[in-house]
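Lecture notes, structural biology module. Today: joint structure prediction for complexes of two components.
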Amino acid sequence: MHARQAHRAADAAARESYGKLVAFLTARGAQLVAAEDALADAFAAALDGWPKDGVPRNPEAWLLVAARHRLVDRARRERRFVALDDALATAATLAEDELDRTEALSDERLAMLFACAHPSLPRAIHGPLMLQAVLGFNAQRIASAFLVAPATMGQRLVRAKRKIAAAGIPLRVPFNDELPERLDAVLGAIYAAFSAGWEDPAGLDPRSEGFTLEAIDLGRLVVRLVPHEPEPLGLLALMLHAAARRDARRNAAGEFVPLDAQDVTRWNAALLDEAEASLRFAASHGRRGRFQIEAAIQSAHAVRRYGREPDWHAIVLLYRELLALTQSPVVAVNWAVALGRAGEPSRGYAEVIVLEPLLRDYQPYWAAKATLAAACGETQLAREAFERAIGLAIDPSVRAHLASRRDALNLDRTS
Amino acid sequence: MTYMLLLFNDEKRWQNMPPDVAEREYGAYMAYSAALHEAGAFVEGNPLQPTATATTVRVTGDGKSTVLDGPYAETKEQLGGYYVIDVPDLDAALAWAARCPAASHGTVEVRPVMEIGAPA
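The predicted structure, tokenised, for the full assembly:
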């Protein structure tokens, strides 16, 4: 196995275990911060040793033993000040064979996800907190994906963790009556982690892998642990669709390729199959929700792999349903674009421009306005909107793509 | 809050650029400046002349002044331009820094501008 592959395997195994163990230790009384410190050290040791020595048969036990050493060391250091460190007490009660009850551990990981997405914590911190407390990513890496200064992200994470302890946010899966609403927050945070550094996960901005694979893993975890709810399946299907098309978003020259021009042979068929199966299973529950509808829209685009054209009238209806559910101006932009594709560009244009006060700094808004204006024959308006989109673009290949579409307008006029 | 975006990049890249590429790159900066204007965030911004035009002055502890040809620090990337923007907070400033074309082919440093009151 190549060194890089070995490192990836070690990283994946360690990360999977990390969240379980943070949940495991905190559920037994250790302070979240102390548990994280100890596990971070153990984790670093694992990433150092595992690629060379191989992943241990029981990664959790290995990490737990390493973390326990740290907790004991810490307790010894602090003994002068603290009669009996609670971390030592916790560590002493841990039996390695407890770790074989993996299902219980997974439940604790799910409880941790619910704590991270608790309504008393700011919504913007839910996703970053999950990435840190459940997957062990450091503040630096999370800050880059969410485009926030590392020091700021560090402070926000610490503040959120203090609040979990100080406000007594419970580490448990909510009871049945509150489950659907709380589950929405968990799914929203997973999707935020998936989309971080990815301005438009539906397929316009190929900038960064960000945490897409990790978010998909979290999505699979929730599906496994809450199998009777359809929305986790919808979210999983949505993320798999986006991930399946990632490689097709750039051509061999590294240029941006929009969804409807992508080479379908470069879509990942296995991921698309899993996405479709997840969505079908979700639909069998007979309760639609935001993520199922978004996944259905992706599914409507994916028919191109069978040589069929997307049914734009169906896509319009799906966006309409999604808009009624979310009231989101971003959804309204996509609805307007779909109207244009379904043969109603002037209606699409009228619907999109009313969103301008809300979305002035949102690049996809200007790209949508430009597309619809061009479809209506309003070349000058289209050019101005493209210009604005170019000024707001982050990814250089998207910027170049928008510029070439603007230049094509000029050619149309002079020809 | 007022922030200064310092655009570091390799100035040789600009000097050796074919005219059509340069026009496209310049256009990206124009579009970015226009977007800042439209958002009401633009205060000022300009490219700088190449570092060959720079002169550095330093007065040492014993009061002797030294004048040197060239920029303060010779590195692979040079300060090539700046924007001063007015936005609510650092997160907003970082969002604009990421959109700056220099963030793709160089580095953008974001620094808050210190508020100095006018003399009474």
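Point to remember: Chain A touches chain B at residues 147-149, 152, 360-361, 387-388, 390-396, 399-400, 403 (CB under 8 Å).
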